[in-house]
Design goal:
The complex is a heterotrimer. Chain A is an alpha/beta fold. Chain A is 40% helix and 25% strand. In chain A, the strands form two sheets. A six-stranded mixed sheet of chain A has the order 6-7-8-3-9-10, with helices on both faces. Chain A has a four-stranded antiparallel sheet with strand order 2-1-4-5, covered by helices on one side. In chain A, a hairpin with a 2-residue loop joins β9 and β10. The termini of chain A are far apart. The relative contact order of chain A is 0.17. By secondary structure, chain B is mainly alpha-helical. The longest helix of chain B is centred in the first third of the chain and has 27 residues. Chain C is mainly alpha-helical. In chain C, the strands form two sheets. A two-stranded antiparallel sheet of chain C has the order 1-4. In chain C, strands 2-3 form a two-stranded antiparallel sheet. The longest helix of chain C is centred in the N-terminal third of the chain and has 31 residues. Chain C starts with a helix and ends with a helix. Classes of the chains: A alpha/beta, B mainly alpha, C mainly alpha. Chains in contact: A-C, B-C. Chains B and C meet through α7, α13 and α15 of B and α4, α9 and α11 of C. Bound molecules: adenosine-5'-triphosphate and magnesium ion.
Chain lengths: 244, 362, 301
Amino acid sequence: MLVIDQLSVSYGAIKAVREVSLRVEKGEIVALLGPNGAGKTSLISAIIGLVPASGGRVVLDGVDITRRRTEDIVRLGATVTPEGRHIFADLSVGQNLRLGAATRRDRDGIAADTERMLAMFPILRERFASRAQTLSGGEQQQLAIARSMMSRPKLLMLDEPSLGLAPKLVEQIFGLITELRTQGLTLLVVEQNAYDALAMADRAYIMNSGRLQFSGRSEELLASDDLMELYLGTGTGVHAGAAS
Amino acid sequence: MTALLSQLGLGRQSLFGSLMLAALVVLIGLIVMAVAEKAQIRVANVFFVNLILVFGLQITMGNSNVANLGHITFTGVAAYVVGILVLPLAIKATGIPNAPFGLAEVLIHFVPAAMIAVVFSTALAFITGLVLTRQTGIAYTIATLALLVIVHTVLTNWVDLTRGPIAMYGIPIRANTVSLMLIAGACAIVARLFRDSRWGLQLRASGEDVLGAEASGVSVRTLRLVAWTLSGFVLSIGGVMYAYMVGTINPKSFYFDAVFLTLAMLILGGMRSVSGAVVGAVIVTLGTELMRWLEGAPVIFGGKMPQIFGLTGFFLGVVIVLFMALRPDGLVGDEELDEMARRLWRERRTKGAKEQAQESET
Amino acid sequence: MDYVIQQVLNAASIGGEYALLALGLAIVFSVMGLVNFAHGELITISGFTMYAIFIFAAPTSAWGLLPVGIIAAIAAAVVFERVAFRPVRNAPATTGLLTAFGLSIVVKNFFVSVVGATRPRAVPTPDWLSSHIEIGAVHIQTLQLLEAAVTAVALMALLALLRGTNIGLAMRAAAKDFNTVRLMGIRANQVVLAAFVISGLLAGLAAVFIMARRGAVDPFMGFTPVLKAFVAAVLGGFGSLGGAVVGGLALGAAEVLFQIILPESIAGYRDAFVFLFVGGVLILRPQGLFGRKHQFGDKEG
Ligand SMILES: Nc1ncnc2c1ncn2[C@@H]1O[C@H](COP(=O)(O)OP(=O)(O)OP(=O)(O)O)[C@@H](O)[C@H]1O
Ligand SMILES: [Mg+2]
C-alpha cells in the first residue's frame, strides 16, 4: 500500500530524515517508534506532502506521490492525524467533522459516517455544537481522529495519538485503532508509548537521529529485552510502563 | 573613541567597513565631477539626496524588517522648516506674508537654519516614534502611512505657512555635489555603524518576532524607537539637503513618488545591508535615467526630484514585484560588501590551506 | 431631526464603503497573511473597465456598466493572486506587503502610460443612483440608501457563506492553520482563490458606489478609499472580520462627526484629525478594537 524508498528530509542544514525506506502493507498496523527529534513527524509530513522530500520516493498504491500536493495525496486516500491534534478551534465539533468530509460528495454516506463517528465517540455527540476549542485535550484527540476518518481514508497515519492522554484514554484510543483495522483500514502509528504501540502493531520501525535503526515484527521486539533496551532505551516511558 | 565604539559593540571591521562605504560614495561623486556634464551633475545631486533618504529608510526597515512607508514625512518637515527659515524676506512678503509666529520676518543663516530644521524634525520623529513603535507588523506599517498622510494634509492645508499646494520657491541654493557627497558619505557611516552596533544587532535578531525578543529580555520597543529616531535624523538631513539643492519645494515632492522611489532602491539593493542601499540607489538612478532617455524625454527637471510616472514607474513597480518573488533579499543580501569580501577571502585561504595539506599528505 | 437622520445615513454609507473594502483586506489577510496594498487598484481597474466599455461599446443605458465594474474587480483580484501573490504565498509578511505595493505602482502607472494622462475621465452611472427620495420631511440620496443596504446584504451573505458552506468554513479554518485544512483534502489554491474572489466582489461593489459618487475615473482613484479602509481595518483589529466592519463604520462615523464639528477654516484637516483620533484609540488598544493581542504570532507556528 505504502512504499517509501530512501526518503530524506532537510530543513536548511538540519537533516531530519536520512534515506529511510519502509513499507506498509494493506490492512497492517505498523508502529513507527523513536525518541524525541528522531524525525518521525518529519517523515510523516514528507509522505503527506506538507514538507518537501529532499531525496527518495513515496509510492502509494503504485502511484508515485513524492512531489504531489498534500490535498491531492489526501484525495488519493491517505491522511494524517497531526501531532498535537490541530483541530479547528473556532469551528464547532460538527463543522470540524464536516470539513473532514470536504472531498466527498455523497451526502448520505457523509451523514452515515458522521453518525458512525458519533456512535464511536459519544462525547462528540454531546458537544456537537460547541466550539472545538472548548473540548478537553482528550476530547480534541478523539475529534481529530474522527475528523480524519470522515474522508474515508485507506491509509491513516496517526502522529502520537496518545500524547497527553490519561492511560485509560490511551487504552481506548488504541482499542479504537485495532477496531479501525478490522474495518479494512491500514494504519501507520507514530508513538512514544512503545509497549502499548507494539502490543497492537503487526510490525514496527524504529528511528533515531533521522535514520532507520530497526525494523521487524512487534513480537520480536517485545520478546527481546535487549532489543528494547538497545533501541528504545531506559526511562523513555517504556520501562515505566514495564514496571507498572 | 575606541572605548565608545566597544561600548556600542562595534569592532574594527565595522569601522573599516563604514569608512570604505563612505569612500565609495565619495568616489562616485568624484568620478561624476570629473567626467559629467552639467545635466548629469544634476542627476548625481539628486542621486546623493536619494541615497541619504535610502540610508535613513534602511535604518528602520533594514534592521527591524517591518515595512515603513512614512519615512519621507521627516524629509518633508525638515525641508519646509529650513525653507521657511532661510527664505529671503522679500520673497516671504509676497509668498507667505501671513506666516504665523512672526515667521514672515525671520531670516536665519543657512547653517543654523539647517540645524534647527534637523533638530525639529528629529524631535518630531522621536515623539511620533513613541506612539508608532507601540504597534507591530501591519498596524505599524499602516501607522507610518497614516503619518505620511497626516503631515501631507498639514503641509497642503496650512497655506499661511507653507503656501499650501503651491511650490515654495526662492530658497537659496547652498548644496553642491561636494557637500552632498560628503554628507551622503557621513550618513553611510551612521547607518552602517548603527547596523553593526549592539542595538542594530539586537533589532535585527528580533526580526518580526517581537514577542520572542521581548521574552529574551530585550526591549524591542526601545530599540525600534532608537532606530526610528535615528532614521528620522538622517531623513531630515536629506530634506534639508534637498531644499538647498533645488531651492523649490512643494508637498508633492514628499509624498508617494518619493516613498516609492526610495523604497524601490532599498529593495533592489537589499534592505538588510547598507551596501545594498548604495547599490540599489545607483542601479535605480541609472535605470530611470536610461528609461527617460528611451522614452525620449529630455533631461529637463533641473535638479528636481524626478517624477516617476508612466513607463518608468511601471518598470520600477515590476522590478519590486520580481525582486520580491525571486530575490527578496535584494542584490546584496544580508552581508555588507566588505563582510562578503572578507568571507570570500577567508574561504579561499582555508581552501588553499586545505589543498596544501592534502598535497603534503599524498 | 431630519438633520440627524441625514448625518447618520451619511456615516452609514461612507462607513459601509470602508467596511466593504476593509472586509476584503481582512479576508485576504486572515486566509493567507497578505497585506494587500494593491486592493485600491481593484477599484481603479473596475472604474477604467467601466470607462472602456462606455467608450468602445457605447451602451445605450448606463445600467450595464454596474455588473461590468463588479466583474472587472473580481477578475483583477484573481489575476493579482495568480500572477503576483502566488509566488510569495509562503514568504514573510513584509515580502508580500512590498509585492502588493509594487503591484499597485505597476497598475497605476499602466493607466498613466496607456490612458496617457492623470486627468479624470467621466463615466456615467444610472441617473437613479444620484436621485433623491423624500421620506416625510427627510431628503435622502438614493445612492446613500443603497450603499447602506447593499453593505448590509453583502455582510449577511458573507456571514452565511462563512458559517454554512465548506469553502467558508475552510477559509475560517485556514486563517489559523492552513496545513490542516489541506490535510482535509481541501485545495489550498481554492481557499485562496475564494478569498480573492470575495475581496474582489466587495471591492467591485465599493467601486460602483465610488464611481456613482465621483462620476469619473483616474489612475489614483483607489488610493484614498483603500487607505481609509486600511485605517479602518487596523482600528478594528487587522485580520478580524468583525473588526473590519466595526472599524469601517466607526471610521465613517468619525469622519462625519469631524465634518460637523470642525470649523470651516480647518475643514481641510479633517482626515488628519480622523487619523489622529484613530491613533489615539490605538494608543489605548494597540491590537485594535477587536484584535486579539498576539494574532501576528499565531500563524507562524
Ligand atoms: N520546521 C522545522 N524547521 C527546522 N527544523 C525542524 C523543523 N521541524 C523539525 N525540525 C527538526 O528536525 C528534527 C526531527 O524533528 P521531528 O519533529 O520530525 O521529530 P519527531 O521524531 O517527530 O520528534 P517528537 O517525538 O518529539 O515529535 C528535530 O531535530 C527538529 O528540531
Ligand atoms: Mg513528532
